[in-house]
Design a protein that fits this description.
The complex is a heterodimer of chains A (171) and B (114).
Chain A lengths: L4 H23 L2 H18 L6 H23 L6 H15 L4 H12 L3 H12 L4 H8 L3 H22 L6
Helix pairs in contact in A: 1-2, 1-3, 1-6, 2-3, 4-5, 6-8, 7-8
Chain B lengths: L7 H9 L9 H10 L11 H61 L7
The chains are: A mainly alpha (171), B mainly alpha (114).
Chain lengths: 171, 114
């Protein structure tokens, strides 16, 4: 049974930032991220899924978004375009700079886009969504050891690349 | 130190990766798609397996019925072939017995018509 329209609108408004951010950081392209976000919400609307709590909704949306975003990434089978970079710089770098130097943010975003898919997904869930490794393992349906390994290797790559380019910030 | 506790670099990464705002009008576009015909193209995640199960159940029942029918036909044909073989053997034995009797009668000088 499809979900009630009012309830659906509330869910979209509540979770659109989370879904779009996740899709953007996995696909690296704002146009694709919007498509993924729309599809994820429409899947929710049509699913007839019994979602009993906000946590359940969040878990469901994160899982569907990650799957759809990685599918989109594989279909394109190329590195994300400069669109996301432009998007970050033009629209949002100013907001982020209040908390952290915009140059560091831009650099970390760029380094993140260079990570292999599995590591990128794990890193985004860990550091954007602030999920614990067991929560990530449950969401992705992967063994905890795989998640830990992807996180560790992803962090190593980020540290190594970051150390080369921003020694003044990273020790 | 907790197993999942973050070091300075990780904390910096967390600060560098905040959620970003969705593009303006995203919610409106989603609601339009949900209300419009385009949404009909999306396969309902939960309903699909149910439909599939019904179809699969029907197909399985049909296959079983066909299997039972075919098995019955095969069994019937096998019984028929066995009966035909037994009949042919009985006819052959009878023919041989008649031939022998006819030969004995002939040797005894008794002639019988076929």
């Amino acid at each position: 049974m499809a979900m009630d329209g009012t309830e659906f609108r509330r869910l979209v408004e509540t979770h659109q930032r989370m879904v779009f951010s996740l899709a953007l950081r996995v696909t690296g392209e704002s146009g694709v991220a919007e498509e993924v976000a729309q599809d994820a919400f429409l899947a929710l609307f049509r699913s007839g899924e019994r979602l009993e709590s906000e946590d359940h909704v969040r878990f469901w949306l994160r899982r569907v978004t990650v799957h759809r975003a990685t599918d989109a990434l594989r279909r394109r089978s190329r590195q994300p375009e400069a669109a996301a970079e432009e998007w970050m710089e033009e629209d949002h770098a100013e907001e982020n700079s209040a908390a952290l130097n915009a140059a560091i943010v831009a650099l970390l975003e760029e380094l993140l886009r260079g990570l292999p898919e599995a590591m990128r997904v794990a890193v985004v869930l860990r550091y954007q969504e602030e999920m614990s490794p067991p929560e990530i393992a449950a969401l992705l349906g992967q063994p905890l050891a795989t998640v830990k390994s992807n996180l560790q290797r992803g962090l190593q790559m980020l540290r190594r690349k970051a150390a080369v380019t921003m020694k003044e910030y990273v020790r | 130190m907790n197993e999942f506790e973050q070091d300075e670099f990780e904390r910096e990464l967390t600060r560098a990766l905040p959620r970003v705002d969705a593009p303006e009008g995203l919610a409106v576009r989603i609601m339009e798609r949900a209300a419009g015909p385009a949404a009909a193209k999306i396969v309902p995640i939960r309903r699909w397996p149910v439909v599939q199960q019904r179809w699969f159940g029907g197909a399985l029942a049909a296959a079983l019925a066909l299997g039972v029918f075919a098995g019955e036909q095969l069994h019937r044909r096998h019984k028929q072939e066995l009966a035909d073989q037994q009949f042919a053997t009985a006819v052959r034995i009878t023919d041989q017995a008649l031939d022998q009797t006819r030969a004995q009668l002939l040797r005894a000088g008794i002639q019988i018509s076929q």
